[in-house]
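Crash report, auto-generated. Payload:
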Amino acid sequence: MTQQFIHQVQQKMRSPHLDLLIRKGMQGGLWAVTAIGIVFLYLPIAVLVIYSFNASKLNAVWQGFTLSWYHSLFTSVAGTGSDFTSEQIWEALWNSLQVGGLATIVATVLGTMLALGLERFRFQRKQWLEGLLFLPIVIPDITMGISLLVFFSLAFQIIEQLTGVRLVLSLPTIIIGHVAFNISYVAVTVRARIAELDPVLEEAAMDLGANELRTFGRITLPLIFPGILSGALLAFTLSLDDFVITFFTAGVGSTTLPIFVYGMIKQSVTPAINAISTLMLIASLGIVLTSLALQRR
Amino acid sequence: MTLLNWFSQRLKTNQQRQTFALSLLLFPGTFWLLLFFVVPLLIVVLYSFLERGTYGGVDWQFTLEHYARLLNPIYWGVLGRSLLLAANTTLLCLLVGYPMAFFIASRPARWRNTLLLLVIIPFWTNFLVRIYAWIVILRQEGVINTFLESLHLVGEPLDLLFNSTAVTLGLIYGYLPFMILPLYATLERFDFSLLDAAHDLGANDLKTLIRIVLPLTARGIVAGSLLVFIPAVGEFVTPDLLGGAKSIMMGNLVHSQFLAARNWPFGSALSILMMAIVLAPILIYFRIAEQKLNA
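Recovered output after restart:
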């Protein structure tokens, strides 16, 4: 019975007219899923931005347009009943920029060197190094975070016993952690660029009498520079974005922006978080558009 | 630089100079990764076999109690939930991401880039900010409840936040682009004229999908699933902010062992288990890929 039915349906499906209809339907379905998917990706962000202008502090009822939440980010001082002070925000932002900037510089240099070594030379046990570079990308953030916490606390204990100097978790420990995960991302990005580079150009320079250093400075470096730049931008974004690894390697007084925002969310949900989130959103959008514009050139 | 120049000129043979340049390039990065990534991981492995210290830290005595404790059914719940939530997330991302990637890949070239950019842009915004957006939407005084109440559809606000559904939603939101990108990469190379060929040979759409499209894009499906599953299973922030006491995942357990309970060895054992869960599918994936390559 069911067999017969299925057979009938299959016969029906053979008809070109119905087939076309189904095809159109499927196209429409694909279009709809994509549209819904993209709305799903943007709706929460849109809500966040819209409610950063809502006058109501307590709930999502729209009570008129206000800039007061943005205003509070810049003017809150201690003892006025606010959960935070502007000074804290500026300090967190400055810390984030310091960590991001320094970690990016170190990771970009080390990552680019590794990429050059891996792509331009042949050596034994290359897979070992590739594996080593791959691990920080796949390992859970929290595992990396706690391992750094454990490492630093043990290292600091040993240093204190040997020299009497007492070290604590602070910005340098955060930077060390960020470099450790960013090296891999930079190396992967730069390596892809070097792979596209025609080795003939370098050989030609050498044939014309340039030594290795000169060839590197005049030929290789300028040609792979866009790759280095996008690697650096990726590292900077990842560093600014990172919460988990920073969380475990930060100490008192080394609050970065994500740590600060996390604290705000945990404390109470106020529209001021929407405002600071919107500003962070604009900043990261600015970075993306800049990097796209750079790649276009 | 001149010192370097002088030194590299002293090395007579080409072979010597190559080796010198290579070690100069590789040493700093490798050293950094060994000291600040591998050594810390090894210390975690070591700590997981040591007794718990009185005030956090460890006592230097060998024990297997932390691994034995992992066998306690109390922790199976958390482990099972982490795997289940990550698997659900992966499956749902695949169900939404595959049609999206398929649609984008079958568009003309200029549309493709625009659509792809649309998918990637939210992913560049801060992770915490994206999770916080869901708190704004789902909480009792949030957007959905306010809307439903204004229509008098519900008398009391619904509990949409602090449960496993909210966590899954947050995870899907966080990792959907990770699924779409590798799927798109394989579908972009997919020859869409094969669809017409299958059609002409009498295969219906379902058959074409199962026999042609899915097998040829299997690589993308596996890669995307790994890219979603791996970070999702080790998540800590999403369940911390969107989940409640009944939806904690392994990451939250590790976090509480290190900060609240101050049981570092047990936390270490937990994170090693987590690492094993993450690395196992990757190793299997590479092994299979290698076999396919050799075959």
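Post-recovery validation: The two ends of chain A are 66 Å apart (CA to CA).
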